[in-house]
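sry for the spam today, last one i promise. struct tokens for design, 210 residues
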């Protein structure tokens, strides 16, 4: 990306600030081009009509693929994702009990600390901070995070027999939209008549795998 006159003026005073400015603008332009690519593909060369947010979400899968491609192949996009995740998660968001009972608070905090060291399903050593980093990256890079609660058996030897399993959003059947007698399914998410999510329709395997 070429530096404009303002960039060059800033570079004269602070080269580092100028570099950050150029990198940030490159990441922004890449994001804009990605969104415009989805809009152009969806509109097929026609002026896009005014639509509601649910209609716009139908381009999510395509936008997610383009975003991942940009992160794989473009340094500014990759850097932007990493910085956003770092700013969101930091060193980890850790809840603390505040019941007003010191003894109970300590028991709850100790129990959570133990669970947080073994909470992530499908990994060895995946703790609560790792869970947050991976979920944050999925949200920033792909637009959403899909997490499933997994109940474990006593024989698994966990302090708390519950783990969180992070799943790729691609596993959600976004083509499944249908009205039900007591609710509806929209893009793979089943809702009650009062619009409360109550189920998720998932593929048995990743749709991109042969």
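last one done:
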């Amino acid at each position: 990306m070429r530096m404009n006159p303002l960039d060059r003026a800033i570079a004269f005073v602070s080269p580092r600030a100028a570099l950050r400015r150029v990198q940030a603008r490159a990441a922004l332009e890449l994001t804009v081009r990605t969104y415009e690519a989805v809009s152009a593909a969806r509109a097929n060369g026609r002026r896009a009509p005014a639509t509601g947010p649910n209609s716009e979400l139908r381009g999510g899968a395509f936008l997610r693929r383009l975003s991942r491609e940009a992160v794989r192949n473009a340094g500014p996009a990759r850097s932007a994702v990493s910085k956003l995740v770092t700013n969101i998660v930091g060193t980890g968001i850790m809840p603390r009990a505040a019941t007003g009972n010191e003894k109970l608070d300590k028991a709850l905090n100790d129990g959570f600390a133990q669970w947080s060291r073994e909470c992530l399903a499908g990994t060895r050593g995946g703790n609560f901070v790792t869970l947050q980093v991976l979920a944050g990256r999925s949200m920033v890079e792909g637009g959403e995070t899909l997490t499933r609660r997994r109940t474990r058996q006593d024989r698994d030897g966990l302090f708390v027999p519950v783990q969180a399993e992070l799943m790729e959003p691609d596993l959600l059947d976004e083509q499944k939209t249908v009205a039900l007698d007591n609710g509806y399914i929209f893009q793979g998410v089943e809702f009650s008549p009062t619009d409360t999510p109550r189920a998720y329709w998932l593929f048995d395997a990743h749709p991109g795998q042969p």
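Residues 46-50 have pLDDT under 50 and may be disordered. ok im logging off now
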